[in-house]
């Protein structure tokens, strides 16, 4: 079996998904889960992009011990310096430096000649290799680059010190056969190719990211890059869980394996979905709610007689368990803490005290508290705490079929100021959001609103995601509560609090662009 390295870019390319805005604690929590999943490399962010990105990459590099942590840099020395500062304390500091190589990018974006692009790439790889033990170099838009030129620049960066060469399909344009042919071409035309690891990085614009990644490993790639749940720019990146399970299920054909702990997939997918607000479609391969549901009578009959008639992946393989009741309102703090530890959370006692109060409050109203509920409480309470500038004190909404819905809201604002307002709307949520906007005394544009139940049953918790624009900043927020209106109000305030936090931190900070 050949070993394929998994390079996870959920926190960098994945976080570039429209509307996704993870905070420091959320990024750290995802990185810890990626470590449990046992990916080989975590791309934690783009340190030169902002102070926020820098500190989260640094914290992840200092915390993660079983994976290599990397950060992205453009081909400029200041980006490499920032990345070094952020990554130097990691177990194996690794730099991911890129430059665009295709004629479209060279002529229109970079305005550099072929020779100038090679010169810049070589100079920056040399500079990086003086600091980092491992330098990965990427040819942005490699798949629309002239092959002889791609081979020439790849040879030059290997000579300059690159240890991993990545061939991204930046715009999701290539087909599996063509992508495989690029790897074959490079292996046949780059003299020093044997000394490096070749990596595949595919976007899903034409729905071919997984097929392309698999084709790359058939043609010599030893590393595959992607994001959990396939999140990322536009149509997203290759979904790592799909790639890993395809390789495992068809190892007879691919004769290759990853070191992923496959039964951590479900938990990782759910964590990423909850924190990014990017809901996993029910029919999504490997992690969708229906991925293991057999609906037709013929299928059910077959599965009851012999599972493998219609099931090529077992739900246990990827960690799907039936969500049994684990705790209730009579459970004690010790049992609560132990279960959270079993779910992978290490939480200091002072925080457990607060979380336990929230748990008890919910358990009073909801008979069965499942693992999913516990995870939702921890994520909600723990990962949003540093950003509460406005807090919800109470809401009251009046609704009747022949009445104008009206909401009354009380908030605690800056300096513990109590703010109270009321407003009508054409529906309950609109009345609530009109009232909250009145409390803030500034325009807020709601761009997206989504509601999902946590688990099953009539008393399931409500999880709401919103995307909004406030103070000229677009961001997302999430809220959890037993009641949909309360969850809606919390999600809205969570987004507002994030904007205030981001704008407060972003003052005088240059934001670099990757694309
Ligand atoms: O898609 C892409 O080209 C990238 C590079 C920065 C590697 O994400
Ligand atoms: Zn990408």
From TrEMBL:
GO terms for biological process: L-leucine biosynthetic process. It is an enzyme of class 2 (transferase). InterPro entries: 2-IPM_HCS-like (IPR050073), 2-isopropylmalate_synth_dimer (IPR013709), AIPM/Hcit_synth_CS (IPR002034), Aldolase_TIM (IPR013785), LeuA/HCS_post-cat (IPR054691), LeuA_allosteric_dom_sf (IPR036230), LeuA_bact_synth (IPR005671), PYR_CT (IPR000891). The keyword ATP-binding does not apply. GO terms for molecular function: 2-isopropylmalate synthase activity; acetyl-CoA C-acetyltransferase activity; manganese ion binding. GO terms for cellular component: cytoplasm. Residues 391-515 are annotated as: Regulatory domain. Its cofactor is Mn(2+). Mn(2+) binds at residues 13, 201, 203, 237. The keyword Metal-binding applies. Pathway: Amino-acid biosynthesis; L-leucine biosynthesis; L-leucine from 3-methyl-2-oxobutanoate: step 1/4. PROSITE patterns: AIPM_HOMOCIT_SYNTH_1 (PS00815), AIPM_HOMOCIT_SYNTH_2 (PS00816), PYR_CT (PS50991). It catalyses: 3-methyl-2-oxobutanoate + acetyl-CoA + H2O = (2S)-2-isopropylmalate + CoA + H(+). Residues 4-266 form the Pyruvate carboxyltransferase domain. NCBIfam families: leuA_bact, PRK00915.1-3, PRK00915.1-5. PANTHER family: 2-ISOPROPYLMALATE SYNTHASE 1, CHLOROPLASTIC-RELATED, HOMOCITRATE SYNTHASE-RELATED. Belongs to the alpha-IPM synthase/homocitrate synthase family. LeuA type 1 subfamily. HAMAP family: LeuA_type1. This is 2-isopropylmalate synthase. The lineage of its organism: Bacteria, Bacillati, Bacillota, Bacilli, Bacillales.
